[in-house]
Design brief:
Length: 60
Amino acid sequence: MANLKITLVKSTIGALQDQKDTIRALGLHKMHSSVIKPDNVCVRGMIFKVKHLVKVEEEA
């Protein structure tokens, strides 16, 4: 199963509260911090909600 590397590239200042909550649920805290998550439907849905704030790369 593939993994996704998710990096926070834009600040959550001014973002809606549910978007801020989604960023925290993904495990991101500071700008340019990264997490590795499994590529599944739940994670893809969270990424879709905050796609304008994050950069996603596929890990092998």
